[in-house]
Amino acid sequence: MPPEKPDLGKVDLEKPHLVLIDGSGFIFRAFHALPPMSSPQGVPVNAVYGFTNMLARLLRDHVGTHLAVIFDAGRTTFRNEIYPQYKAHRPEAPEDLRPQFGLIRDATAAFNVPSIELAGWEADDLLAAYAKAAVEAGGCCTIISSDKDLMQLVRPGVELMDPMKQKPIREAEVEAKFGVRPDQVVDVQALMGDSTDNVPGVPGIGPKGAAQLVNEYGTLEQILAAAPAMKASKRRDNLIEHADAARMSRRLVLLDDNAPMPQPISELGCREPVRETLRDWLEEMGFHSTIQRMGLGLAAKPRPFMRQIVRPEDKAAARDEVAAVTIPDAPYGPYETVTDMDALDRWIADARAAGVMAVDTETDSLNARQANMVGLSLSVAPGKACYVPFLHETIRDLLEEDSTGEAFVRQLDRTEALERLKPLLQDASVLKVFQNAKYDLTVFRGAGIPEITPIDDTMLISYAQSAGEHGQGMDELSELHLGHTPVTYDSVTGTGRKRIPFAQVAIEAATAYAAEDADVTLRLWQVLRPQLRTRQALALYEEIERPLIQILTDMEDVGIKVDATELRRMSADFAERMGTIEQEIHEQVGRSFNVGSPKQLGEILFDEMGLPGGKRTKSGSWGTDSGVLESLAEQGHELPQKILAWRQLAKLKSTYADALVQQMDQDTQRVHTSFQMAITTTGRLSSNEPNLQNIPIRTEEGARIRKAFVATPGCVLLSADYSQIELRLLAHVAKIEPLLEAFRLGQDIHARTASEVFGIPLEGMDPLTRRRAKAINFGIIYGISAFGLAQQLQISPGEARSYIDAYFARYPGIRAYMERTKEEAKKHGYVTTPFGRRCYVPGITEKNGARRAYAERQAINAPLQGGAADIIKRAMVHLARRLPATGLKAKMVLQVHDELLFEVEEQDAKALADFVRTEMEGAAKLDVALEVETGIGPSWADAH
């Protein structure tokens, strides 16, 4: 049936019905929803493709008289003047998305639709201004967006339209989401804050608490005025202490409907696209299916951007692999909601009969250790899946009445259901398949089931054979391998500040979403598991990735103790030093200004001081990122040096000194980082909440941060770190005899390199010359340029080039390795580590020289960094298997790049050091011996 039309009353053609499309929201939705695609010219276009089809559908279905697409013009707006940290922690757009922004503007023009953006203003502000203008003109406005931040705009004459569900969002829907009227939404947002946009809010107040306060007291100001008279509580204290933060938060979240309108509504009248123009543009992009659907007169052609299911290296492999892969074609749903034990028993019996089942948990938190299991889903065959609800709060579905006539939701008791499922989850004859198993295992552990075996993980099965080729999320894998777009989490819970907990999702919608996840996971397993052998990734998965799931789960559960007193002392010290630097900066400039404001800083550096090399961003402001400031500092300018020092302290203060105290478990005084197993291209682990991979290594501040990681009383920390592992791998894979010999003889590798390259005797080696050799040794691994080496050593580019030329002249095998590796990447699209891991290199055939050069550097480094990752992962598996038999009272608590950290009882520390060193050095056999350095101390800094 056709999608539901907006219902704003009878359209008066003399009055505007303005349809506004949230372009920025659609860009990111399309980019993350669709697999990588390329135009015939090789440019990434997955977001462009998604946006194009959305726009074509809207032009067919909307009923407005006026139409425009609203875009964000840049990241910096007037809100950054109010609060410099606003959205400051958001990462830059992915590299593959950046070239698509311009193409999406081109798409809008090709459809003959006006596009509007304005520097210094967010798209949401423009949407607010145009909606207000449409109503003031006697008309109405429909905003096509799923962004719940826009719900504050809903009122008579203004509604949102969910583009996925094609259903309107009006006052009733807003109140159902927020618990307040649309005109009160801003006050709720101000109280609860928003971690996504870095809006502080009031600590400890969430969506329900904020709505309760607004309904009880009225506006934010009325709440703050009433706070002193409230009953004594932590909430009352926070309202008083953080009143100014709440007021500022309201200014940040309030959309400005007085924003300038670059074009009047009268110029936004709906226009038909010019067929030839649109067809030519679609043809240029390679969107032939869109041309056919729109009836633009061209026959369908093969889409050059569509990916194959497999990417074999030769025809024989292709035949084998295609023969091994069968895409299940059973329908997706309908699925069963399990609400009684008899039904659950039937599913348990079906799982035992099948011998394999997919399992997925639904929770109320992305932090697995803090999450409550709201429900779980099972799948035993394609199309055959169920959802078992436990903790849903909704009363819209499956209602029954108890003896008093009170309505309730019929769902299973979690404890009873998990006890019934426990034998199945631990049955060695039934394989349990997860997508991101570590998360679900942690959730099950928190619910009282500490061990589930045996398991498979579709995320890691895919990652073992395609690291860097694409993302490893379930939705992306489903699109790529099954050709199916699953129900999204956002579509059932909402997004941003308006997201509801999964426990509040209607059970019918929860079943459609959750059971499909299990169904998709099982289908992915059926497709991807056979490819492990044909893509030579079976050993990698079975011997490294799969065993690490349980190892990392255990490490996260143990965590590491932090000294909160030391962190607070460090935070105060950083703040004092920042204040001193800030005062020096103000004195140098001659006036006060916001040091954290990129806009103000750019005006001072380039407008007032007239420093060279300034470049304006798309928003029109001066760029002041670290690269710009470092370049100015290297030219001898003092102010950029001070700004860099201030920023470094600010980052360390917020990221570690302050954040670690907040992330610490108050009962155990420990932090529990989450290891990400399938993020990097090279196989390296990463971590978050907290991120412990980026603590500075060689700075005084980095050492202070490590000082705050401590052992429990009676224990010490043991650090075990691979020495120069990537240089050893370089010597191994490139077969560089002088380097091999130096490592075999135990020589100082950097002094030996200096001697070989510069012809200087080893005895009495000048420290400066050794430092230059060291910079070259490590720089070569990362494909350093003469310019980069010149900056690092503070010498001229010509002198740096002569050093690099001398290095390659002495070690021609290294250049040969680099060229060989680049050719391998261009031929296959990936390089391999010495242990067989494929590391895909996007952009290796880019026509753009800068992007291609970056990809080539990645290709050169990936076998070395990836090889080092493989080695330490192998060591972790060996250690986890053999440590219990030693009787040593020790636990592995952290892995950071080439280092492992253990907590051990003090009397066992020396024996553990010997054991760990032996195991780590024996994790792989290279042409040179691996060497591990160990240290023991009461803190990480002392042991490191």
TrEMBL record:
InterPro entries: 3'-5'_exonuclease_dom, 5-3_exonucl_a-hlix_arch_N, 5-3_exonuclease, 5-3_exonuclease_C_sf, DNA-dir_DNA_pol_A_CS, DNA-dir_DNA_pol_A_palm_dom, DNA/RNA_pol_sf, DNA_polI_H3TH. It comes from the Bacteria. GO terms for molecular function: 3'-5' exonuclease activity; 5'-3' exonuclease activity; DNA binding; DNA-directed DNA polymerase activity. Residues 702-908 form the DNA-directed DNA polymerase family A palm domain. GO terms for biological process: DNA-templated DNA replication; double-strand break repair. Keywords: DNA damage, DNA repair, DNA replication, DNA-binding, DNA-directed DNA polymerase, Exonuclease, Hydrolase, Nuclease, Nucleotidyltransferase, Transferase. Residues 335-533 form the 3'-5' exonuclease domain. Pfam families: 5_3_exonuc (PF01367), 5_3_exonuc_N (PF02739), DNA_pol_A (PF00476), DNA_pol_A_exo1 (PF01612). SMART domains: 35EXOc (SM00474), 53EXOc (SM00475), HhH2 (SM00279), POLAc (SM00482). Residues 14-271 form the 5'-3' exonuclease domain. The keyword Nucleotide-binding does not apply. Its EC number is 2.7.7.7. It catalyses: DNA(n) + a 2'-deoxyribonucleoside 5'-triphosphate = DNA(n+1) + diphosphate. The keyword Metal-binding does not apply. PROSITE patterns: DNA_POLYMERASE_A (PS00447). In addition to polymerase activity, this DNA polymerase exhibits 3'-5' and 5'-3' exonuclease activity. Single-chain monomer with multiple functions. Belongs to the DNA polymerase type-A family. This is DNA polymerase I. It comes from Gluconobacter oxydans (strain 621H). The gene is polA.
